[in-house]
Task: inverse folding
């Protein structure tokens, strides 16, 4: 099995992109977008997390097992968040006076 050697230029490009996205998050936080501030911040954080996972955690060029672990982790996170949100949204159904 041959290993893909990623050039240093790629890591520098990703690092600069992460810095730019961090500055973008900071600048967007200074603008009042109402309820969309959190949505924009989460979207930018998702892009940053994707860059870190793809390049620094070697998901893009690594073995297929890395991709499987990443997909399984995301599935598990979505499952736990879905169960938590479902519990939170349905609390008023059982005890109507407490919701």
Result:
């Amino acid at each position: 099995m041959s290993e893909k050697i990623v050039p240093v230029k790629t890591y520098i490009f990703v690092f600069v992109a992460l810095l730019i996205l961090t500055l973008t998050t900071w600048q967007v936080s200074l603008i009042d977008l109402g309820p969309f501030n959190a949505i924009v911040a989460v979207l930018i954080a998702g892009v940053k997390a994707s860059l870190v996972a793809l390049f620094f955690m070697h998901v893009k060029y690594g073995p297929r097992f890395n991709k499987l672990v990443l997909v399984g982790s995301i599935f598990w996170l979505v499952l736990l968040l879905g169960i938590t949100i479902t519990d939170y949204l349905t609390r008023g159904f059982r005890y109507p006076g407490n919701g």
Remarks:
- Residues 1-62 form one domain.
- The chain has two domains: 1-62, 63-99.
